[in-house]
Design goal:
The protein folds into 3 domains: about 5-60 and about 100-255, no CATH class; about 265-370, no CATH class; about 435-480, no CATH class. About 35% of the residues lie in helices and about 25% in strands. It has helices at about 5-10, 15-30, 60-70, 85-95, 100-110, 210-215, 265-285, 320, 335-355, 380-410, 430-445, 450-460, 465-470; strands at about 40-45, 50-55, 75-80, 115-120, 125, 130-135, 135-145, 145-155, 155-170, 170-185, 190-200, 205-210, 225-230, 235-240, 285-290, 310-315, 330, 360-365, 370, 420-425. A hairpin with a 6-residue loop joins strand 10 (about 170-185) and strand 11. Helix 3 (about 60-70) packs across helix 5 (about 100-110) and helix 4 (about 85-95) packs across helix 10 (about 380-410). The relative contact order is 0.13.
Length: about 475
C-alpha cells in the first residue's frame, strides 16, 4: 500500500515523502546492497555480459556499529535517586531487553537518522471510574521508516503516527498508532489520546478494517480504537543524532540524518577499491598455458590434474599458427596490493573524519579493516563529536525513564516518585584526559580538598545523597576518617 495515499485520504500531513525515499537509500548502503552498484554487469564483447556482485567492506554498517557502541554500552550507568523507583524502572528496562535493543536501536539511529521509544501499558484492567490496575509497562522500539511526525515546533515532535507491520495468514496489515493532543471537554487542560487503526496492505491506500474485523486477528486482539491517557505528556520519545538534517530541502524537518549521509561518495569509492583489490587475486592468479598435444600421455591418461584451474588449454593446432613454439608457458600477473591498500586507507581516513571519528580510526591491513583501540584526547574530533551526540541521548534517556515512571504510577505501582533525580553516566573509559583527571581527584580526596561523597558522585554516577549513604562507616561527609 501507499502510506502517503492513505494519509492524503485521511487529511493527515506529515514529512515530505522524498525524505523517506532518502531513508531507503541509507538503508541500502547500510546493507551493502545498492541497486545498480553492488549488483552490476560486465560487458564481455560480442553482445554478451556477465552479472557480477561487487565486494564490499561494509563500512556504512561499521561506522554505525562503532557510534552505537560508543554512545550506549555496558559501561553507561543510569542512577535514580529513589530506590523504589530505581528498582521499578530497571525492572521495566530488563523486561523489555533494553541492554540488547537499546544498543541495537542506537545503531539504527546512526544508520537511518531517527528512532523512537513508545511506552505502553499491557494487560491492565480498567474499573468503572477509569482507573487502571495490574498489567505491566512495555516499550516499542521504532525505526525511522515507521515514524511519521504530524506536528512539531523547533524540531520537537509533539504529535506523531507510528506504524507496525504485521502478517497473518499470508496477508499483510499495518497498525497505525496516532498519538495526538487534544482539549479535555469541560476542563481547562489538554491530554494525549492514542487512536488505533488497522489497514490491510492492498493496492492504493489499503483497506481499513473495523474494530470487529481486527479483533479476529490475534496480533490486534484487544486493541482499543481510542485511548485517553489523561496526561499532557507524550508516551513516545524521539531519538536522533545531533546533526543538521541536510537531506531534505525543508529545514524544519524534525527527523534526523544518517551518520554517513554526507560520506556516501567515499563509501562508494571504498567499495570500488576493495572490489578491485579482491578481483586482483582472482584475475591476476597464476596461469600455465599448455598446448593441447601435451595434455595427455600416449595412453590417453591426463598429464595434469583436470581439476587444477591453473592450467589453461590452448586451441587445437596451436603450434601451426603461433610464432612461439613453446609447449608450456607460465604467466605470473603482477598484483598491485600496495597501491590498492594505500587508496583504501586514504579513503578510510576520509570516511572516519566525515563521520565524526577524526582520522586514523580505521586501517586496512592484511585484507581486512582494523579499528583503533587507543584512548583519545578531550581535544580530539572524536571526543567533541561523541559529547555532542550525548547531549541529545542524555535528554532522551531521562525522558524515557520519566515516561516509564508515569506509566507505572498510572497502573497503581506504589512508592514511585515522578520527579526523582535521574543521572546518566556515559562511558568515558576511552578518554585519555579522564585518567589524569581521576588521579588528580584522588589526590584531592587524600589531602582533604575534595569530599569522598563528591568523588563518588562524580565518578560512580551516584546522586550526592546516594554517594553520602554509600560512604564507609569510618568516613564523615568530607571523606576524612572519624
Amino acid at each position: 500500500m501507499d502510506i502517503f495515499s492513505y494519509f492524503r485520504d485521511k487529511g493527515i500531513d506529515t514529512v515530505n515523502p522524498t525524505y523517506y525515499r532518502q531513508i531507503e537509500i541509507w538503508r541500502s548502503w547500510y546493507n551493502s546492497n545498492v541497486k545498480k552498484f553492488h549488483k552490476y554487469k560486465v560487458y564481455r564483447g560480442n553482445g554478451a555480459s556477465v552479472n557480477c556482485l561487487r565486494h564490499s567492506l561494509g563500512m556504512a554498517k561499521k561506522v554505525c556499529e562503532d557510534m552505537a557502541d560508543l554512545l550506549l554500552n555496558e559501561r553507561v550507568t543510569i542512577t535514580i535517586a529513589d530506590q523504589t523507583t530505581d528498582a521499578f524502572v530497571k525492572g521495566v528496562l530488563e523486561a523489555n531487553t533494553w541492554e540488547e535493543l537499546g544498543n541495537e536501536f542506537q545503531e539504527w539511529k546512526s544508520a537511518l537518522g531517527t528512532v523512537a521509544y513508545v511506552v505502553y501499558i499491557k494487560d491492565a484492567t480498567v474499573d468503572e471510574a477509569g482507573n487502571m490496575t495490574g498489567g505491566s509497562v512495555g516499550i516499542n522500539y521504532v525505526e525511522a521508516a515507521h515514524i511519521y511526525p504530524t506536528s512539531w515546533q523547533n524540531k520537537v515532535i509533539t504529535e506523531c503516527i507510528f506504524t507496525f507491520p504485521k502478517t497473518y495468514k499470508r496477508k499483510k496489515y499495518v497498525h497505525f498508532q496516532y498519538h495526538r493532543i487534544e482539549d479535555v471537554p469541560g476542563e481547562n487542560r489538554k491530554q494525549y489520546v492514542i487512536e488505533n487503526t488497522v489497514v490491510e496492505n492492498t493496492s492504493g491506500s489499503g483497506r481499513e478494517l473495523t474494530p470487529d474485523q481486527w479483533e479476529e486477528i490475534p496480533a490486534f486482539s484487544g486493541l482499543a480504537e481510542r485511548i485517553e491517557t489523561g496526561s499532557d505528556q507524550p508516551l513516545f520519545i524521539i531519538d536522533r543524532l545531533n546533526m543538521v538534517n541536510n537531506a531534505d530541502d525543508d529545514t524544519t524537518n524534525p527527523m534526523g540524518v544518517s551518520l554517513f549521509a554526507n560520506a556516501i561518495d567515499i563509501i562508494r569509492k571504498i567499495d570500488l577499491e576493495y572490489d578491485s583489490y579482491a578481483n586482483e587475486f582472482s584475475l591476476g592468479r597464476k596461469r600455465i598455458f599448455v598446448a593441447p598435444e601435451f595434455l595427455s600421455n600416449t595412453n590417453g591418461s591426463p598429464v595434469f590434474d583436470p581439476n587444477d584451474s591453473v592450467f589453461y588449454e590452448l586451441p587445437e593446432d596451436y603450434f601451426k599458427n603461433a610464432e612461439s613454439k613453446e609447449a608450456i608457458r607460465e604467466i605470473n600477473m603482477e598484483l598491485r596490493i600496495e597501491e590498492h591498500s594505500k587508496a583504501i586507507n586514504d579513503d578510510l581516513n576520509w570516511l572516519s573524519f566525515k563521520c565524526g571519528f577524526g582520522t586514523d580510526r580505521y586501517k586496512f591491513e592484511a585484507g581486512s579493516v582494523k579499528t583503533a583501540t587507543e584512548v583519545i584526547s578531550e581535544n580530539s574530533d572524536m571526543y567533541r563529536s561523541l559529547t555532542k551526540h550525548e547531549l541529545v541521548l542524555n535528554r532522551v534517556l531521562i525522558q524515557l525513564i520519566q515516561t516509564i515512571i508515569r506509566a507505572g504510577i498510572s497502573i497503581g505501582i506504589p512508592g514511585l516518585q515522578e520527579n526523582t533525580d535521574v543521572t546518566i553516566q556515559f562511558d568515558d573509559s576511552i578518554i585519555e584526559d579522564k585518567v589524569t583527571e581521576r588521579q588528580n581527584d584522588r589526590q584531592d580526596v587524600a589531602m582533604g580538598a575534595m569530599g569522598l561523597a563528591e568523588y563518588r558522585a562524580k565518578w560512580y554516577g551516584e546522586t550526592p545523597e546516594q554517594a553520602q549513604q554509600n560512604l564507609p562507616e569510618q568516613f564523615n561527609d568530607t571523606g576524612v576518617i572519624q
